[in-house]
């Protein structure tokens, strides 16, 4: 089989630093984890928070700590560091080769969409951001790795896209459309969702916006592992 | 401008775990670092070494430690942990937004190729792997970020590809060919170099093989940051 992970990310309009931090790291027993955090507010302060959270999580995952424990630890660390006054959302999506499953851990009110072929559902349960309470608990879902599975999650920039002009984003129906018929790549799905969100904000995103798409498909082609990053920069 | 970073990676033939570890991480002041380590021998033992080295480096970079100091620290840590008996190569390529430069740090006898348009050179100086001596020193080169720049580095699987049958790999001339005329993506360059190496090993790589390509080009298209991972898996 083949796993595709794609991320598309824009900053809030006219803000140079994104409050969202995202890293993809190898797990000690094979597999990968994608970690996304969105710190409260935007700009430099939010970036410092989300980086701190993501760093904490990836350093624990690297030691073999389970995802849920890593999320709890990140929450406690943020609570201690900021006295419970600053929150951050956190999503961890792991391809766990030991359990042969995809583990989805979240402290984020934004939904996680899971599709088997074109049948899209939002995972059940409500979860809260980390950092503001002592006994923060992530919601954890475990899905078997199987061909045809697509998982999508995002930061709240996507949730609230279009709110300003009263034309809210419907990520679920757009994803369902994209999964009908043609086999679209994870990157195309991420790009299309983000593009829609930016358009609903009239091209000027109201908040930092990150979309992550994870897709399982039959192995087509070679055995090469690939990673590709595209980063627009402004040296001005 | 736009930065493209592409990685293509295969394992040694019939070995499920690669001794090469590669991570791409955000730097605290913006920009990215790519960290590649290749642990001595192959398989599980080599993986543990290269993971340890890469983890050490990325955790220091996350704290704002300079690349050269992070490489020295990783060397000392490996030396201490393994009593000087185990070596690892290490490459760090950073897009440093503070100095507006690309910083190339290496403890690796394998060359780093740097091209301005189609004019390919290997960086000068010899560097040794880390872990076997107390006073390990990385070689550091700093290049201004400018359009038309391509940087390529790789693990020794690529250096020694084809040695078995006496038809050695010439990465420099292949890169030079690829850069003539058409504007190829970083991913296409990485894929082509790796593909050539695998073919020279008759489709059965003699060693783990990782190729990293970093390219600076004029900004074409949108302001979206993208990350894409493709991972072939075998659930056996």
Characterise this structure:
The structure is a homodimer of 236-residue chains. Chain A has 236 residues and is α+β, with helices and mostly antiparallel strands. Chain A has helices spanning 44-62, 67-82, 156-159, 171-179, 186-200; strands at 2-10, 20-26, 31-39, 88-96, 101-107, 113-116, 119-122, 139-144, 149-154, 209-217, 225-232. In chain A, the strands form 2 sheets. Chain A has a 5-stranded antiparallel β-sheet. In chain A, strands 2-3-4-5-8 form a 5-stranded antiparallel β-sheet, with helices on one face. In chain A, β6 (113-116) and β7 (119-122) form a beta hairpin. In chain A, α1 runs antiparallel to α2 (67-82). The radius of gyration of chain A is 17 Å and the shape is globular. The first copy, chain A, starts with a strand and ends with a strand. In chain A, 51% of the residues are buried. The mean pLDDT of chain A is 93. At the A-B interface, β1, β2, α1, α5 and β11 of A face β1, β2, α1, α5 and β11 of B.
With helices defined by DSSP (H or I, 4 residues minimum), what is the helix count of chain A?
A: 5
Structural class of chain A: alpha+beta
Regarding quaternary structure, how should these chains be classified?
A: homodimer
Kindly estimate the percentage of residues of chain A that lie in beta strands according to DSSP: 25-35%
- Summarize the amount of helix of chain A as a percent range: 25-40%
Cα end-to-end separation of chain A: 44 Å
- Side-by-side strand order of the widest sheet of chain A: 1-10-9-6-7
């Amino acid at each position: 089989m083949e796993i595709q992970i794609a991320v598309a990310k824009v900053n809030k309009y006219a803000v140079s630093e994104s409050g969202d931090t995202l890293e993809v790291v190898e797990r000690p027993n094979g597999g990968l984890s994608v970690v996304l955090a969105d710190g409260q507010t935007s700009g430099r302060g939010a970036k410092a928070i989300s980086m701190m959270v993501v760093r904490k999580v990836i350093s624990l995952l690297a030691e073999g700590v389970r995802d849920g424990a890593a999320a709890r630890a990140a929450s406690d660390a943020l609570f201690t560091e900021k006295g419970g006054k600053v929150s951050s959302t956190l999503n961890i999506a792991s391809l766990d080769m030991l359990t042969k499953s995809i583990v989805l851990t979240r402290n984020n009110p934004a939904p996680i969409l899971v599709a088997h072929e074109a049948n899209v559902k939002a995972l059940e349960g409500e979860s809260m951001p980390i950092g503001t309470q002592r006994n923060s608990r992530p919601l954890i879902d475990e899905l078997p790795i199987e061909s045809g599975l697509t998982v999508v999650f995002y930061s709240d920039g996507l949730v609230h896209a279009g709110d300003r002009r009263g034309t809210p984003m419907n990520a679920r129906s757009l994803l369902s459309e994209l999964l009908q018929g043609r086999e679209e790549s994870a990157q195309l799905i991420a790009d299309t969702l983000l593009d829609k969100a930016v358009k609903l904000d009239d091209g000027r995103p109201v908040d930092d916006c990150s979309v992550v798409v994870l897709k399982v498909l039959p192995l087509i082609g070679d055995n090469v592992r690939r990673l590709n990053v595209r980063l627009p920069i402004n040296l001005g």
